[in-house]
Amino acid sequence: MTIYDWHTGPYPARVRIALAEKRLQSRLRFVSVDLRKGEHKTEAFRAKNYSGTLPVLELDDGTLIAECTAITEYVDALDGTPVLTGRTPREKGVIHMMSRRAELEVLDALSLYFHHATPGLGPHVEVYQNPDWGLYQRDKALRGMRYFDGVLRRQSFVAGEAFSMADIALIGGMIFAGLLRVPVPEECEALNAWYARMQERPSVRNWRTMSA
Q1: Which of its termini does the chain have fewer beta carbons within 10 Å around, N or C?
Q2: pLDDT digits (tens, 9 = 90+) for 21-40
Q3: CA-CA distance, 123 to 36, in Å (whole number)?
Q4: CA gap 55, 44 in Å, rounded
């Protein structure tokens, strides 16, 4: 299988962490798509992923799977023993709900802040910017962090008592916050403690160097 990604991207980080949790690194070939040069927006890359986003998984038969959740679903089910996306209907429902909340309230909000209220990937990629919208999304991400701090005061992981795709989605948001130097609110002690624990996992600690 081939993964098209970028070694510092917070969205590629989500899939890399999932791959490491499933111990699939040895079955993958990594192809770098340079975000800074806008390679993900070229006609050639859009032939692989219409949305022009990373990461993309290409199977040996040529099938292309984009979107972090879809890729995680696929790799988690490969061995017949899903551990990241849920086993029971209840687990699946809660994990998907919390994953989507992590995306909407933190990760995607920070992405919009990056693309609208900072130089982003440069004028060759950022063809339209609305700084006020970007700043609103940054503040939304901070509210999202406070929400997840409340969640993590009640339970050990984002979707309950086990590490899952929902944790990975929120880790992506925390990675993005670090890249953008958006500070986590000081009162979010449970969120910070959870993130410190997550960084003890080899899959999280080593995601940047996986392609090497």
Answers
A1: C
A2: 999 988 999 999 999 899 99
A3: 10
A4: 15
